[in-house]
Amino acid sequence: MRRIIILILFLQIYIQSLANNEVQVTTSLSGIYWNHVWLSFFFGVLLTMLFRYLNQRSMPADQRSDAGLPLRGWIILLGVTLVIQFAIQGYAFWNSNFYLKSAWYPWEAAGGGMKLHLLFILEMLMTLFAIAGTGALIYWFFGRRDIFPSMFIYYVGYLLLTQFILLIVYHITDLPADLLSVRHVILKQFFRMMVYAMIWVSFVMKSEDVKQTFVYPHG
Question: How does pLDDT run across 38-56, given as a tens digit for each residue?
Fold first, then answer.
């Protein structure tokens, strides 16, 4: 309840900042997009609430012959891929400069309008969700939580879905010539994620070691 009140309070501030930005006329391309910062804050609060909800879940108890195996073998490699992915996502988000006005300038100079700006924000939120999801998976992985296998499968499905959505949106959006290369980048990311999904989702679903390792409920 407390987080909801805080969210509503800052949402009012965000709406007010939008109104102020519509009134103010500025020609400066330097500085911070505070609207993006506020939006990320609201999104972060929602992600925190979602994590708390999911973290309290537990899978139905069953009988395993060798419950609580230590992390080993291919499972360790899976954890390494998650840590690497988290680092790559964080680095990419940092380099994207979603909060800097200067990051939007090339899009604007190339003829970008409101549609491209909304697409810019959509990609920012999807990236934030992906980073938060990877962080949650790493937490559940090292805690050997029983929900890790199912959450991993859902998460990979989310990544495939979001990249597919971005792929479609970028292809149906009339992009300036300078930004057409973005389509090829997203296409490569989509196929790379498909390969990752085929390998690791199959492993998580079929591996007996996974079933015997991730067994601990919440608390």
Answer: 888 888 899 999 999 998 8
Helices vs. strands in the chain: H and E counts, helices first: 8, 0
* Both tokens assigned to 64: 């395993």
Nearest-angstrom CA–CA distance, 169 and 36: 20
Distance CA 185, CA 170 (A): 11
Angle at 119 between CA 118 and CA 123, to 5 degrees: 115
Please state at what angle helix 34-55 crosses helix 114-142, rounded to 10 degrees. Answer: 30
Backbone angles phi, psi at 217, to 5 degrees: -80, 175
Q: Comparing C-alpha atoms, which of 145, 146, 134 is closest to residue 196?
A: 134
The structural domains of the chain, with segments of one domain joined by +, span 71-213
- The DSSP H or E segment spanning 63 is none
pTM of the model: 0.79
For tokens 């949650």, the residue is: 136
